[in-house]
Amino acid sequence: MLIRLSLLFRKPVSLFYKGDNVECPVCEKSFRKFLPYGNQGIDNRLCPNCLTLERHRLLWLYLKQKTDFFTANLKVLHIAPEQPFIKRFRSMENLDYTTADLVSPLADVKTDIRNMVFDDNKFDVVICNHVLEHIDKEQQALKEILRVLKPGGWAILQVPMDYSKEKTYEDDTITSRAEREKIFGQYDHLRLYGNDYPKRLEKAGFSVKIENFTAEFEKEQAERYRFDMNEKIFLCMKNNLSTNFSASTFI
């Protein structure tokens, strides 16, 4: 219903926000500002046209500038597919694109990330953003993603991060929705990730490269795209024989 409503109101809202102060690199449209978004209604975040957030705009440019995602023939699994990407990725002739989710009506395949229905070594790329914080058996989910990746394949596994924390915070005794929202950021989050997140990825078997991609943009350009300048990209690789990445320090 939310998706249908967003499609209905997208055009008039885009006209209301007409301007040239911010730009979405995904839909390539500019506005005087982005829409507020989130449980605290933080301003200037959501693209009125294609509904990207900071993380979507950053990931789009990363895939375009730093990977062969837009040019190579790739078999791609997109877990919990994000609305701004689905039609765009599906229309790319170089991609064999599959979406998966446990409940989403947008997904091609209904499956649990902790026990996926796909064969071993099936996909070149897995994209799974802002999902793991909702999962009670994180390591099981990560090992499933590793299992379905081909050797040499790679995954983008972004999560909400608090870079001021050295260790990820979890406490399953906190059951109050209000308390969970206060501590974890959302009532349905099970943990708040800290700087040990790459180690958790490595524990599951990935080689991890931490990309400080936002640092490659001039301040004015980053402000125009409205990035979160603290966000790192976690490039997770399976049995990459040519390069052994270390996640012990940020780039």
Can you offer a commentary on this structure?
The structure is a single chain. The chain is an alpha/beta fold. It folds into two domains: 1-52, no CATH class; 53-237, Vaccinia Virus protein VP39 (Rossmann fold, 3-Layer(aba) Sandwich). 27% of the residues lie in helices and 24% in strands. The chain has seven helices and 13 strands. It has helices at 2-16, 54-66, 83-90, 138-148, 177-184, 197-203, 219-225, and strands at residues 18-24, 29-31, 35-37, 42-46, 74-79, 95-101, 109-110, 123-128, 149-156, 169-170, 191-192, 207-211, 233-237. A seven-stranded mixed β-sheet has the order 7-6-5-8-9-13-12, with helices on both faces. A two-stranded antiparallel sheet has the order 1-2. Strands 3-4 form a two-stranded antiparallel ribbon. Strand 8 (123-128), helix 4 and strand 9 (149-156) form a beta-alpha-beta unit. It starts with a helix and ends in a 14-residue tail after the last strand.
